[in-house]
Amino acid sequence: MATEKIDLNNLDKSDWKTYRFDEIAQNISERVDPNNTDLEVYIGLEHIDSESLHIKRHGTPDDVNGTKLKFYKDDIIFGRRRAYQRKAGIATCDGFCSAHALVVRANPDVIDPALFPFFIHSDLFMNRAVDISVGSLSPTINWGTLKHQEFKIPPIEKQKDFAELLWSIDHHINTEKKLEEALDYTRESYIKSSLLKYRSGIEADLPAGYEIKRLDELADISGGSTPSRSNDSFWDGDIPWLTPTDVTKHEGIHLSKTKEYITKEGLKDISNRVYPPGSILFCSRATIGFAVINDIEMATNQGFSNFICNGEVSNYFLYFMLQHVTPELTRLAGGSTFLEISKSSMRSFKVVVPDKMNLEVIESKLLHFDKINREISKKISNSSVLRSNLINQVF
């Protein structure tokens, strides 16, 4: 195994050689007219995921106009515009791509084609690419500059072991991602079958024991607000104060901290309230649909509709239901600068509530899905960090 042959912590680079990038890789600059080509696959930068070697989406010639770049199977499509996004994927077939990319192909006399994609994703290469980019609004790399950049490369006879090690980790990550996708599909299928949406006339089709309820029959619903920023006595207190940014960047159902805190005076100034643990804090403005259940008392700004359940349903069930009906809620939103769901619209919105036994089953299964999903996501994250660290130890 490659992992048994390599000690990356004591890597001897004394016999490594320095090469210009145009000695390491060839720039493929063949042009394609999308309106006059037999190629069927178009890859734009939007089809390439950051930090990923694998391109899973594509467009067609009908999607674009103007001259593009041809690529061949196994070439690397590297986003030369906004290189800090770290977009570089391996082509799985012949096709053409955005002119905002570079198509590069490993020189097998200098670098093993199996190792080359990891070199492109190394900090050594990516940081250099960012440094040589030109332009302020949309920094872009020029081949004329990139080709002169110099990098140290291991001897060709050692590269196979590096490649085997890195590909084994990448394969593990992809296996976990496929498991995550399968779980997501199963979860979404279960949600669609178990969380029924309200529509006119649905009453006649409801299973026995199911009821239609307004949201304000299930919870006390209110919102938050923001103390004056000009009064220092309102800020840096002991009361956690939640903003949509705290929620949109948070993973998981529960949240126990915020970036900002307000004082009792700040809370009093805005006639705000502190929401007890177990409340559902639902973004109803701009970033509609993001939500958390708070583990500690906290206040929120005006971007939220906050739910304190009254016992008719559990907070977990209502949390999952609100996410499920977010598209319908969003259609009720108004506003010119940004969309916002009014509290009156939120309170009068109707949902389908199952009988107690089915409610408990649904809640239990959805919590189980969430637990497994978080475990898989953590594994993917840890493996991705390991892969990145190993790439940067090699290069």
Describe the structure.
The chain has about 400 residues and is of the alpha+beta class. The protein contains twelve helices and 20 strands. The strands form six sheets. The protein has a five-stranded mixed β-sheet. A hairpin with an 8-residue loop joins strand 6 (about 75-80) and strand 7 (about 90). The radius of gyration is 27 Å and the shape is elongated.
What is Rg? 27 Å
The CATH superfamily of the largest domain turns out to be: DNA methylase specificity domains
* Terminal CA distance: 20 Å
Q: How does the major sheet shape up?
A: 5 strands, mixed
Supply the number of helical segments: 12
Whole-number count of domains: 3
Strand order of the largest sheet: 12-19-16-17-14
| Unreliable stretches covering 5 or more consecutive residues | none
> How much beta, percentage-wise?
15-25%
Query: What's the overall average pLDDT, rounded?
Result: 92
CATH topology of the largest domain: Adenine-n6-DNA-methyltransferase TaqI, Chain A, domain 2
- Total beta strand runs: 20
CATH class of the largest domain: Alpha Beta
Offer a few descriptive terms.
4-stranded antiparallel beta sheet; 395 residues; 5-stranded mixed beta sheet; alpha+beta; Adenine-n6-DNA-methyltransferase TaqI, Chain A, domain 2; 20 strands; 3 domains
Summarize this entry quickly:
By secondary structure, the chain is an alpha+beta fold.
